[in-house]
Write a structure and sequence with these properties.
With about 525 residues, the protein is of the alpha+beta class. The chain is built from 15 helices and 19 strands. This is Poly(A) polymerase.
Amino acid sequence: MDEHMIEQVGGQIYTFGSYRLGVNQKGADIDTLCVAPRHIDRNEFFTTFYEKLKKLSEVKELRAVPDAYVPVIKMTFDGIELDMLFARLALQAITKEQDLCELSLLKNLDEKSVRSLNGCRVTDEIIKLVPQQESFRLALRAIKLWAKKKGIYSNVLGFLGGVSWAMLVARVCQLYPNAAAATIVNKFFLVYDQWKWPQPVLLKHPDSDEAAKQGLSFPEWDPRVNHKDRFHLMPIITPAYPQQNSTFNVTNSTRNIMTMEFKRGLEVTNAIFAGKDDWESLFKPSDFFTRYKHYIVVIAKAATADHQLEWNGLVESKIRFLVANLESIDHIILAHVSTESFCSKSEDDEQTKWFIGLEFGRTDNVNINLTDQIRHFTSDVYHKAVNIQLYKDDMVLDVLHVRKKELKNYLPQDVYNRVGLKKKSFVKRNSLSMSPNNDTGGNSPDVNGHNETNKNSSDSSVPPKRARLSDSQSSDNSHIVDFKNSGSGRSANDSPITVRINNHNSFFRAKKNGSVVTESEYLPQQTLTIL
């Protein structure tokens, strides 16, 4: 192209999400969309443009995710976190006045461009559909803060993301068009405490007829036509064509947790309006780390910061599947994942921890084996890492069971003190390799795999040792820990529950003779328990 044409073709960066709605908070990321004319394709965005970004001194923590459902480049630009999507329009030039809400723009676009455009289109539609924008913004700020304090603000972990919370508040604003922000907050909890899920939340009727007139036929959310849409638990439907469910990640547990918080929020705001409480009570932090007696800890490790950044993103995106797998187990009535993760760094590696609280129902004497669920989760993560060519030899994924009194060994000290857990001294959990000849300090397993000195004392203050097999070792022994009073409301007379997690994560080898290994090759078949 000559210089004159280059000046004419243009190209724009649009914002959407919380920043575009005017409810962004200090330190929050900004969602952006790069819109290019027809002669620039997506491959150039993720190659030549990505390489240009690498050379900028302002850009840190740069990573591209071209294979995501909505492809994105993530970065920190001059200290500000940015997520940048890409869309190519079938136009010769992109002007500063270009309106992205026009349906005709979607003609001849691929589905990834349409999904990317929908971020801006949905945000603009929400703004148009709200009766009083100032009341909406103030109420939305309050609800977003409340959701973050209660640990239910995370689309990737199966709760709701920013756009979903915005649509819920916008619907309440439509129902109460003249209400002040404080009233909107109270009515928010009233409406969604009584909402009959999976009845969908809609801000307006779909534009399907108008889209059909223009020859558009992109897939839309419609349970009458699409079989998979019938299984969505908490549908909140975007107002821009093609309408989609923004909450397809929600699981049974995350929905139950959110509906419970809606009920609590209604009680608190009713008390506030009655003059019996104040607004600070609504924003008290979650009691996640004191609510449950048993937790699953997911630990992602890598040797370098760059590898850990990539590994974290993949593992976090799969945790909701682990939650769904845990929900399928009899006697587990709730699997609650915390939206707060914890990063740490040592001389050997960098690691991130996520916690899942488990609540058990009232049962008789029962043995709960989590091995299959953990194995499916780790298998899925490793396979995905290999398939998208992300896996490196230093990437490790561990999944452990811990009791509440052992959390001190896994939480940062300031967090442990903040959540108000009772302080006790613990013996640090050891990592060892168990083999038939391994010396375990005089506490060798018996023929059933139980530690002889502890098999009759299930509530010993010393945490059980975690065992890991190396490639050259094998064992058919199991090391099982019994513990009592599992789940909320269990009495001291309830029967004990035995939780078992067999060794699920032998040292992984990404390739074997130049080809990707199969699950049977890298997942051990022995039944060594790592509790």
